[in-house]
Amino acid sequence: MLDVAIRAKSFRSADGTVIEAVGDLRLSVPTGRFTCLVGPSGCGKTTILRLILGLDRHFDGEIAISETGAVAAVFQEPRLLPWRTVEENIRLALPGASAGEDLSGLFQTLGLAGLETFYPGELSLGLARRAALARAFALRPSLLLLDEPFVSLDEALAARLRGLLAEVWSARPTTVLMVTHNLREAVELADEIVLLTPRPARVSGVYPVTVPRSRRDAATVTALLADLTAAHPGTA
Amino acid sequence: MLDVAIRAKSFRSADGTVIEAVGDLRLSVPTGRFTCLVGPSGCGKTTILRLILGLDRHFDGEIAISETGAVAAVFQEPRLLPWRTVEENIRLALPGASAGEDLSGLFQTLGLAGLETFYPGELSLGLARRAALARAFALRPSLLLLDEPFVSLDEALAARLRGLLAEVWSARPTTVLMVTHNLREAVELADEIVLLTPRPARVSGVYPVTVPRSRRDAATVTALLADLTAAHPGTA
Amino acid sequence: MHGLGGLGLRAQAWSAATFLGSLAALVFIWWAAAGLAGSRAFPPPQDVLAFIVTEAASGELAFHLGMTLMRVGAAFVLAMTIGSALGIALGRHRGADRFFGPWVILFLNIPALVTIVLAYIWFGLTEAAAIGAVALNKIPNVVVTLREGARALDPAYTEMATVFRFSPFRRLRHVILPQLQPYIAASMRSGIALIWKIVLVVELLGRSNGVGFQIHLHFQYFEVAAILGYTLSFVAVMLAVELLLLQPYERAARRWRPGHA
Amino acid sequence: MHGLGGLGLRAQAWSAATFLGSLAALVFIWWAAAGLAGSRAFPPPQDVLAFIVTEAASGELAFHLGMTLMRVGAAFVLAMTIGSALGIALGRHRGADRFFGPWVILFLNIPALVTIVLAYIWFGLTEAAAIGAVALNKIPNVVVTLREGARALDPAYTEMATVFRFSPFRRLRHVILPQLQPYIAASMRSGIALIWKIVLVVELLGRSNGVGFQIHLHFQYFEVAAILGYTLSFVAVMLAVELLLLQPYERAARRWRPGHA
Amino acid sequence: TDVIRIGVLKFGTVNWELDTLKRHGLDARYGLDVEMVPFAGEDATNVALRAGAVDMIVSDWLDVSRARTAGDDLVFVPYSSSVGAVMVPDRSGIRTLADLAGRKIGVVGGPLDKSWLLIQGLARREAGIDLASANDIVYGAPPLLAEKALQGELDAVLTYWHYAARLEAEGFRRLVSAEDAMRALGASGQVSALGYVFSEAWAGGHSRAVANFVRASRDAKALLDHSDAEWDRLHADGVIRDEGRALAVLRQRYREGIPDRAAADDEADAGRLFAVLAELGGERLVGPSPVMAPGTYWSGLTDDH
Ligand SMILES: Nc1ncnc2c1ncn2[C@@H]1O[C@H](COP(=O)(O)OP(=O)(O)OP(=O)(O)O)[C@@H](O)[C@H]1O
Ligand SMILES: Nc1ncnc2c1ncn2[C@@H]1O[C@H](COP(=O)(O)OP(=O)(O)OP(=O)(O)O)[C@@H](O)[C@H]1O
Ligand SMILES: [Mg+2]
Ligand SMILES: [Mg+2]
After folding, report:
1. C-alpha A152 to ligand 4 mean position (Å)
2. CA A46–ligand 2 middle distance (angstroms)
3. Residues of A in contact with C7 (CB under 8 A)
4. CA A130 to CA D195: how far, in whole Å?
């Protein structure tokens, strides 16, 4: 269970302006559930993830995480260590116990096979994103935060990776919170979609996706999408 | 007129592996036309743009640019100078003559108003991308290269920016080459769509969009998309 | 945009308090240690202060300190300018670096004594020879530091500057120098210190005034209080430079870093 | 994965050729200049070489050079270890930096003479006092350089390490040190040079052997050839260290940079 | 046997005497073992004495007096009266002190050098000129100034006696020596310039050893005074680097500087000169006391002459 109760989060920029990034926002993701966060660009989504990850403690509110296992994140930018190879980057994120694990299957699926010894600076952006995904997946986290993980990928690949994410998610009980701008993606994957207002971010609506994942084919997804936009007009 | 004739481009990675990024590739964008480049992740698109921009001269082939005005690029990552404010970043890219220009309209349209004195590190990724777009647009280039400019933006905003791009493009004769993974976007904007093979990039097909831009409403675009995927199966 | 000293009043007061506390702690430790040692070789702060006061009253302190500061300043400007230019050039051009690398190592490791004596021999016992010799001693240090900085430049920004056709000046000022800032700061701080130490040697070997000259005079009589008096006067000037010039400049230069305040 | 010296044979040959060419050019310029000067104060290379040969044959050179290298090595290890630790700590903790900043400036600007004499007086004319005094002189320089490096650390990587729960050791080794590499390289190169220069003073002031001892003896007779002979012997050792240790290490450490080759 | 550790300059003049002393077993003859600890500079011997690494060094009475006033317990035993001299090239037109007016003069040791002050005093008295203000004075390290004088950049150079001797061998002549100045300013005879310096407390516990050392030292001087062969040996053994004319001049000047009268007379003259110096150099030279500190000359020296 991830329980977020932010009363306010603001930044003071270098020129002294105070920016309210997150307003009064309550959000909870039950253990083992998949929630998507959707909101306009610059509304505060990344800020919310950072607060959950404990990377910024200057805010008014409380965040409770009851998952005790590993936490993994896919940042909005790959954040690979440029001076370590792809494989080293992934292995470094693993705890000592699983350091020797066989990762070739994962590399294969992600189209990274043969690039294990490349440095991040030698990858295309899409490849680097996949390496960042591999790092998060390899860890088998019990809480997974994703910040627009499937951008910069061609549609075929993105679909494959969404499949992989769904697989990872169902193989072990994983609590997932994913930020995306792609509503179709959200509808395909999520148990619940949380819609945010423009900055400062507040919850503007919650859309539970009740259709079982196995039955979400192209047509169903399109229908769900229409339903969602009807229920929450202005969501594009 | 932009004339690209690459015979081969390969990289030698730090571990000595030789990677062929671009194969035999011929491409030409007539002056004032809008071409989209679509291809799977990691196929060599960014490499092609870098060769055109003259950032990498180690390749076999020739590239001729007959446009004499300014060249602007929107890189796949924003590449703003972190130690300069948003406004400074944009003004620094302007030649001395237009340094004092009024940019407030542009800031307004891009949703950057009020953030002029922010440093890039204080922006969300979407905001940073918009600043990078502003930098390219403000220059009024005669050759504009864009590498996936509209990712990390919510759909409403992306649509608005696509409109802005079309406007910029039609206001002055601009030759545009844009990389995208979003076929719908390509069909909406381009005069011609060039489809690339997986690495090493070669042209796998060319799809001219003959419908005038003014008549490309949602339904037409969907139809065109269907036509495109029928003509070039496997393009997703 | 804010001015250079973009700190709130409260933050400024806090900063001043920390500074004074830091000095007070230092003086206290010194005082206690000197008391324990009880040796003429380790005089307590009050003795040194007394010396400074006498020497200042006689005008000697200001004169010698002034001469030394003049030399330090001139050599500093020379060394930083030439050293930065060379360092950036070597850092950017691998071929030149390969060729001149061994020269840098050579000049880096020539003892101050050698440079200074040779400079005095060739150019006479003049001020210019003295300052030139000091600068020559420091230049290789600046070169090595800035060469590392130039090697670590992020090509992403250089490429951006190329695409948008930045003029060489714009590129230097807005793309290169901001990235080199930490390297420049490091070589400025350790630079002034190194230069001052070499100036001491120069003044010992062939000048008739300056702090180095005075320190050696007092060294002959083993007057540690006098030696410390002159040393601390110089350190006081450096602390002033640090507080009034370097730190505000760096605060401005680091404004953009997240959590800079 | 390749070994440390990940250079092709041809590249290696080319690199050796450049190195030799560089040295040859230097010796030639020296030779020509010495010919023009025609002064005892500026002997030509062959005179210096002759001195080195004689001194080496007598065993003196190896002995004094060995003593000096031992001191340089010990002081270097001490200064780099302590200085890096302090520098990183100050760079990461703003409060500590505010408080100890003035101390750093103070210690940075205390003349070598003062530290050395005080160390000798308090701890006796021992090897430990000598090495400690040298290290103490160099530590503040390492601190300022690494402090800048630590301040410039990219928080993106630190945050990643926090999220993925890197152990302190893993964080230091894989996240922090690689970012500090250019700063470490800069402070190693100028560090050895500075330490060697201070060792010369230490040897002048209280040792009965070492290159500094010899150089000052020869200075009394103005035997520039001998002074240069000793200087260049040390420089030769430093060039060897540069070629055989520093450069291969740096090549490995910079492998990841685009266009590093 | 008593061991005495003496800090010396490796190629310094003190070394000549001590090497002779050791070579001829003069220390053993007096039940001593003299151990020479070589250093590269005067400053180093000074530090070594204070750090307790050696028992004795060579320095001058002015320093000792000043140190005593400041609370150190150093004492002095005369060693040599060789002092510095103003040297000019042979062909130089400078013949008298008065000719020095308006010249570029190199001075070793700095503006408070004892010899320099005495010569200034002399110039003021004899020629009525103020050397320090009427000239372009360059202070600097002795080797550097010697080289500059040879190059012709300096018109005259005041330097230590052994540098002066070497210059003499290179075609320079003595214009005036500090000894001339001492006599003119009130000394009745040859005043020691340098002496063995050591801690009074240490000497108290080793008075026999010190007395014996002084005897051995005197024997060594006597040998050097009479035997040219000993000088050739010193050169052959590499203790003295100079040869030919330089060696001859050094030998002669060294011999002139061997103290030849009772320490008490020396002390009286030193006291007189101290007062003169106190006047010339003021507190900056002599320290807070205008008279020589009592006990500067070691009182344990009884059997002198
Ligand atoms: N400096 C380099 N060294 C080695 N390989 C490189 C280098 N730069 C790019 N590559 C390789 O070249 C191929 C093409 O890269 P490029 O960046 O052009 O792809 P892309 O089509 O832009 O992909 P994406 O859609 O993911 O951005 C990739 O396999 C990449 O790993
Ligand atoms: N360090 C900071 N200082 C000042 N303002 C900041 C800082 N970090 C973020 N902001 C501001 O907070 C707001 C929210 O930023 P955030 O990165 O959370 O947006 P986002 O929803 O992730 O946007 P995007 O979809 O574009 O990534 C933005 O307006 C941004 O400018
Ligand atoms: Mg974001
Ligand atoms: Mg790309």
Report:
1. 8
2. 7
3. none
4. 48
- The residue in chain E having the minimum alpha-carbon distance to the alpha carbon of residue C203 is E140
Residues within 8 A of D (CB atoms), C 231-250 only: 231, 234-235, 238-239, 242
Which ligand does the CA of A59 lie closest to?
A: 2
- Asked if residue A50 has its Cβ within 6 Å of ligand 2, the reply is no
Alpha carbon of D5: minimum distance to chain E alpha carbons (Å): 43
Q: Which residue of A has its CA nearest to B21?
A: A124
Across chain C, mean pLDDT equals 87
Q: pLDDT band for D5, please (50, 70, 90 cuts).
A: very low
CATH number at residue C74: 1.10.3720.10
Of C44, C57, C32, the closest CA to residue C225 belongs to C44
Is A200 touching ligand 2 by the criterion CB < 6 Å? no
Q: What is the pLDDT of residues B10-42, one digit of tens each?
A: 999 888 889 999 999 999 999 999 999 999 999
- Residue closest by Cα to atom 5 of ligand 1: A122
Atom of ligand 2 nearest to the CA of A42: 23
Q: Give the three-class secondary structure for B95.
A: coil
Q: For residue E39, give the chain D residue with the closest CA.
A: D208
Measured distance between the N- and C-terminal CA atoms of chain A, rounded to whole angstroms: 30
Count of domains observed in chain C: 1
Can you tell me the distance from the alpha carbon of B176 to that of B141, in angstroms, rounded to the nearest whole number? 9
Top residue of D220, D221, D227 to mutate, by most chain E CBs within 10 Å, is D220
- Report how far Cα A122 is from the mean position of its chain's Cα atoms: 25
**E52: region left, alpha or beta (phi > 0 left; psi from -120 to 50 alpha):** left
Q: Exposed, middle or buried, B235 (CB in 10 Å: 0-12/13-18/19+)?
A: buried
Fold of A2-69+142-231: Rossmann fold (3.40.50)
Report how far residue A74's alpha carbon sits from residue A146's, in angstroms, rounded to the nearest whole number: 5
Phi, psi of C107 (to 5 degrees): -65, -30
Tokens of A143: 């809480």
Count helices and strands (H / E) in chain A. Answer: 7, 10
Which ligand 1 atom is at minimum distance from the Cα of A126?
26
Parent domain of C217: 45-254
In this model, does residue D173 exceed pLDDT 60? Answer: yes
pLDDT given at position D261 = 42
Per-residue pLDDT tens for A137-164?
A: 999 899 999 999 998 888 888 988 998 8
Name the pTM for this structure.
Answer: 0.90
Q: Which residue has the tokens 């083993």?
A: C222
Does residue D59 fall inside a structural domain? yes
Let me know if residue D37 belongs to a domain: no
Instruction: Give residue limits of the domains in chain B.
Output: 2-69+142-231, 80-140
In this prediction the ipTM stands at 0.89
Measured between alpha carbons, how far is E36 from E18 in angstroms, rounded to an integer? 8
Taking an 8 Å cut-off on Cβ atoms, the answer to whether C41 and E43 are in contact is no
- Is the Cβ of C168 closer than 8 Å to some Cβ of chain B? no
Query: Which sign does the torsion angle of CA D119, D125, D127, D130 carry?
Result: positive
Helix (H) or strand (E) holding A133: helix A125-138
Tokens 């995904």 appear where?
A133
Q: Can you point out the beta strands (E) in A55-151?
A: 60-65, 71-74, 143-147
In the predicted model, residues of chain E with pLDDT beneath 50 are 304-305
| Average pLDDT over all residues of chain D | 88
Q: What is each CA distance from D46 to B20, C64, D49, D234, D237, in whole angstroms?
A: 54, 42, 5, 17, 19
Specify the pLDDT at position B172: 84
Residue-level pLDDT at C14: 81
Nearest Cα neighbor of C261 from A14, E92, D215 is A14
